[in-house]
Amino acid sequence: MTLVRASTLRIAWRSLWRNKRRTALALAAIGLSTALVLTYNGVLRAYGDWMVATITGPMLGDVQVHAPGWRKDRGLDRTLPTASATLATLRRDPEVAAASGRIYAPILVALGDEGFAAFVIGVDPDVEAHPMGLLASAPVHPSGRGVLVGKKLADVMGVRVGDQLALVGQGVDGSFANDLYIVTALIETPVDMVNRQAVVMELGEAQRLFMMSDEVHEIMIRARDSDHGAMLAQRLTAEPRFAGTEVLHWRALAPDLVNLVELVDVAWVFVLVLVFVAAAAGIANTMLISTFERTRELGMLLALGVRPLRIVGMVVVEALALGVVGVALGFALGGGIVAIFHRIGFDLAQLTGGGPSAISFAGMNWTLRLFPSLAMIDLVRTFVAVVVTALVASAWPAIRAARLQPVTALRA
Questions:
Q1: pTM of structure
Q2: What is the tens place of the pLDDT at every residue in 63-101?
Q3: β partners of residue 109
Q4: Cα distance between residue 40 and residue 52, in whole Å
């Protein structure tokens, strides 16, 4: 009677370790697959976070304001007037972390006799020096007649720091815009277009060159809480000072990149299948063999009056214990791997024998050096996956054990 009255958990735990080698192999399969999933999730999360930071940092901000139609044709005359007053008001908004105006204008730039098509970006250096801003990696900021040139454009033109460039374009009033500028630095940003075609100058100088009094083409806004950026865009749209303008959240500005981010967010599902396969194979195999080996013991329990439901509970609890211990080992291993590479970084270029540290795709420079990280949701999803798999994998062995006939089982 003592055996019958013993807790289901105690019986299941003791039964689990009857064959230590088999249990160890099952735990290894579950633990290694869990560690692989966490490592993979860590890399995906690093890439996803980097993508969003790159899109909303130097590229788009959280919210942008434009004149109607400017995004369609980039017309030089489609400007936002009274930019200084608008920016001052935005910077006093408690939900706005930073706001800056930008000017974009096509030009011809020449070092000697040959001209190259490029465009000027007029920026506020104080705002763009933000850690994820357009000038975050710039060694110096543009000021006066000093400009920054995208590194790839500089390589094509043969431009070096200290060279004098001639810029030729058209003013917003149709006048001839031209002047000479000194290259003070070459820059390389996460935005490929800037690296290939941009000459970056201080906003006030760009306004002078293109005859813009107090006008900008774009106002870029960073929210204090990026998760509330869409609500900020919606609120600003309803305000009278933005009547007749286009106020958009970054997800509306770059739908293709949003799809790419969402694809990265769901990519974990594919590797999560590994947990199901490894855990199901390990647990089902272990439990099936265990119930076959314990046929006489289970028959004796049934003969002593133990209900079939409790037999099912014993097998299910044993499977859950196997899964939980396995996933705990996987958490320790995978979490340790992610923690190490979060500190030192993980260079994907080394896996291919060296090469460039970034690749260009979808208008962005994709870094190959990542710093993996995990969120609580990654652990929860993996844990739930293993628990569900344990329940599913234990169903057949549990039902078989519960349907044993005591007389037949005792003769086995």
A1: 0.72
A2: 999 999 999 989 999 999 999 999 999 999 999 999 999
A3: 116, 167
A4: 18
Q: What span, in angstroms and rounded, lies between the C-alpha atoms of 30 and 20?
A: 15
Angle between helices 20-54 and 308-344 (to 10 degrees): 50
pLDDT tens figures, 173-200: 889 999 999 999 999 888 888 999 999 9
Whole-angstrom distance between the N-terminal and C-terminal Cα of the chain?
Answer: 22
| Among candidate residues 274, 298, 288, 287, the one with its CA nearest the CA of residue 321 | 287
